[in-house]
Write a structure and sequence with these properties.
With 737 residues, the protein is mainly beta. The strands form 4 sheets. It has a 31-stranded mixed sheet that branches. The chain has a 6-stranded mixed sheet with strand order 3-4-9-10-7-8, with no helix packed on it. A two-stranded antiparallel sheet has the order 1-2. Strand 15 and strand 16 form a beta hairpin. The longest helix is centred in the N-terminal third of the chain and has 9 residues. The radius of gyration is 29 Å and the shape is globular. The two termini are 40 Å apart.
Length: 737
């Protein structure tokens, strides 16, 4: 935002002569007004920095909405973010990775006032010091830090109307007194989710069709406490605690099924689930010189527990049908112990050397039990019941060196070494157990050249490992219908990813980014069609199994063109971008390694082949218009379009959304009214067709047209310094829960 600063420059002229009795007239030059432009969006050596505190957008909204307005970021589902099409985003706050699951992060962002944020850093290719995987990007939110003692806080209330009405509220409280700093937040809300499904699969000889809805009531409670003590001017000791609880009792998936166009049966899955996680972190930091060198260390403990109990029933709708049912319990307990030490050395020539080591030990315990109804009672299904225990040790070490050679040229190089030792065992089933030990050396480099004040160009290279999530390794199933389900896979292996980027920026407002990503031994969730044959009667049962598995390699060559600029004295602020991606996916899946022989039955699978070459595009236009000279009324008009695109799982059809909002700032109160997905065109529609004629579709309407009313009240001393936040030892593990 351009800031007007009044500079008074007064020149006095005239001379006083001893022989003169009359003073000469004093000549004064007029006061000149000088406009200084502060750079809102700039390219640093390894990241893009969006100084939101200098932007009119950061007025009276929340952090989630602010991120939606940030250059290079996009969100198509109102829950998650992408950086120029990257598969995942990792959130850091003041350099510390958040220790919450995706839903908790969304709630935290939507309950954090945008006025608390100083800047947003977007790291498209993270350096060796970041514990990230695959082609993940990093969003680092830097909070404002003030200097006075006292307290302040924020109260927030929100009401959302989509298919159901969903209220939520939150409170944040901060205090500082001399050497002690304290901040905490707590939020709660109820959210009842509604989805409408259409599922089909088949080939030239048969077809299955399922239509129905899912109602999922959720109650959420979350919060955190951070305490920081300044031992002396050089050292700090800190403690943090984060918790999250989600309760979803009474979730119902109701589907009506057809076979070859004829009404078959109705299946109803009822589910009770709850998720709890607690994270404790103790950290210590000591400054070793006046240049900013420091030694940090911390230890962390993470406990994650998800309980899920479901009852699936199939009711006949024809005279020759029969009732069937199953009971399923899929608990998951994760214990993670972690520690790390990092040392950063600053030099007078503006060079920085960093070195660190980390250790993570994770133990996951998943005791899945499934009982099938045999006509009179429920009997344990030994093939689908299993007690899976997974243990993983990751030893990591990194070193980076950054040097500013001149005002124009800087470079950063580094490498990360990771040794992974893991074992997986199903109690009582020795044939499913495995042991994997592998090492990875992951180099990194970035070069940044400021051609002049208006032009900047940079190059980055990185390699990373992508490990499967812990829940994906547990060999359990999630059912849509008895013959349409997701199958997890303990035999999935990590994939290796290589990333390169060239970025050009003009006048800190216009940018172009060319990227290339190669994934080796990639994995995903792929549809496998097959049939189970009764060896005695010859009766066939067709099924569609979405299995998580490795399939082959993929490549993406991307181009992003963007603009972030304010017009007409900051009255109109724009953030436009266009992403173009040429992607190739190649591989195949010919078997299901989780299949266990069933006496008296033969299973036959149709191979799934991936040979996709496609050009994918994405367009986004965000506009913020100031409606009043007092800067208290704002109108937001945002639109994004994602034309049809090919993926490993099939073709995702066109999605788009028009979002409108208006906000009023009134003293310490902010009122925000939003209407999202005005034309109700943000619908998931994936269709797959194989060369052998087999097909399947998944169409999900999630009722993303939503009307929101949000009220925020800020109280207390707004010049408060937040508690110090640091990097946690088990950051790399949290996202995989």
């Amino acid at each position: 935002m351009k800031a007007k600063i009044l500079i008074a420059v007064i020149f006095f002229s005239g001379m006083i002569s001893a022989q003169q009795t009359q003073k000469k007239t004093e000549e004064t030059k007029t006061i000149e007004e000088v406009k200084l432009s502060k750079k809102v969006f700039v390219k640093k050596s390894d990241r893009f920095v969006y100084d939101v505190a200098s932007s009119p957008i950061a007025k009276g909204t929340n952090s989630f909405n602010l991120l939606q307005q940030t250059p290079m970021l996009s969100s198509t589902d109102g829950k998650t973010f992408k950086i120029m099409g990257k598969s995942n985003v990792v959130f850091y706050i003041n350099g510390k990775r958040t220790l919450m699951d995706a839903e908790a992060i969304t709630e935290m962002l939507k309950n954090t006032p945008s006025e608390n944020i100083q800047k947003i850093e977007v790291v498209t290719v993270p350096g060796s010091e970041f514990q990230v995987e695959a082609n993940e990007g990093v969003i680092n939110i830097v909070m404002k830090k003030n200097k006075t003692n006292g307290y302040n806080g924020t109260l927030k209330m929100n009401n959302s109307q989509s298919f159901y009405n969903n209220p939520s509220s939150g409170i944040a409280f901060n205090a500082r007194q001399n050497k002690w700093s304290f901040n905490s937040n707590f939020n709660m809300g109820s959210y009842r989710e509604r989805e409408k499904y259409t599922l089909t699969n088949g080939d030239s000889t048969f077809s299955n069709e399922s239509y129905g809805t899912m109602d999922d009531p959720n109650k959420n409670y979350g919060g955190s406490v951070n305490i920081d003590y300044e031992i002396n001017k050089k050292s700090n000791l800190g403690f943090s605690y984060n918790m999250r609880y989600n309760k979803s009792f009474g979730s119902v998936l109701d589907m009506t099924n057809f076979e070859n166009g004829e009404l078959s049966n109705k299946t109803i899955n009822q589910e009770d689930a709850q998720t709890r996680n607690h994270n404790f972190n103790l950290n210590y930091e000591v400054k070793t010189d006046t240049l900013g060198s420091k030694l940090t260390s911390n230890v962390s403990y993470l406990w994650f527990n998800r309980d899920k109990v479901s009852l699936g029933e199939s009711f006949p709708l024809t005279s020759d049908g029969s009732y069937s049912a199953f009971q399923q319990a899929v608990p998951q307990i994760i214990n993670n112990y972690a520690a790390n030490i990092d040392y950063i050395k600053k030099f007078k020539n503006e060079s920085t050397f960093a070195i660190g080591t980390s250790y993570n030990y994770t133990n996951t315990d998943s005791d899945t039990k499934q009982n099938d109804f045999d006509g009179t009672q429920f009997v344990t299904n030994t093939n689908l019941s299993n007690h899976f225990i997974y243990k993983e040790n990751i030893i990591g070490a990194y070193a980076t060196f950054e040097r500013k050679f001149s005002d124009k040229f800087s470079a950063k190089v580094g490498t990360r070494f990771e040794a992974t030792l893991s074992t997986g065992d199903v109690v009582g089933k020795s044939d499913i157990g495995f042991e994997r030990n592998y090492n990875n050396l992951l180099p990194y480099a970035t070069l940044n050249y400021a051609i002049n004040d208006n032009n900047n160009i940079s190059y980055s290279f990185s390699s990373r490992v992508r490990r499967p999530g812990f829940g994906q390794l547990n060999p359990s199933r999630t059912y849509f219908t008895p013959t349409n389900y997701i199958q997890n896979n303990p035999f999935m292996q990590a994939s290796k990813n290589y990333n390169q980027e060239i970025n050009y920026m003009y006048k800190n407002a216009f940018y172009a980014n060319v990227s290339f990503n190669f994934a080796e031994n990639a994995y995903g969730q792929l549809p496998l069609q097959g049939k189970m044959i009764d060896n005695v009667t010859g009766e066939e049962t067709k099924f569609l199994r979405y299995i998580r598995t490795n399939y082959g390699n993929n490549k993406q060559l991307g181009l992003t063109l963007g603009m972030n600029k304010a017009w007409f004295g900051d009255i109109w602020t724009t953030n436009y971008s266009a992403n173009f991606e040429y992607a190739t996916y190649k591989g195949s899946v010919t078997k299901d390694p989780t299949s266990q022989p069933i006496e008296g039955f033969t299973e036959i699978l149709q191979p799934y082949t991936i040979d996709v070459k496609t050009l994918n595009t994405f367009f986004q236009a965000n506009n913020m218009i100031r409606l009043s000279a007092k800067k208290d009324w704002y109108l937001g008009v945002n639109y994004w379009l994602m034309p049809s695109r090919e993926m490993e799982i099939g073709k995702l059809h066109t999605q788009q959304s028009l979002d409108l909002n208006i906000k009023k700032i009134m003293g310490n109160f902010t009122f925000l009214v939003e209407l999202n997905d005005v034309f109700n065109q943000n619908i998931d529609d994936i269709r797959t067709i194989q060369n052998n004629g087999s097909y399947n579709t998944v169409r999900s309407l999630q009722y993303r047209r939503e009307f929101n009313i949000n009220v925020t009240y800020n109280f207390g001393n707004q010049k408060l310094k937040k508690a110090r936040e640091v990097k946690s030892a088990n950051d790399a593990i949290r996202s995989r829960t």
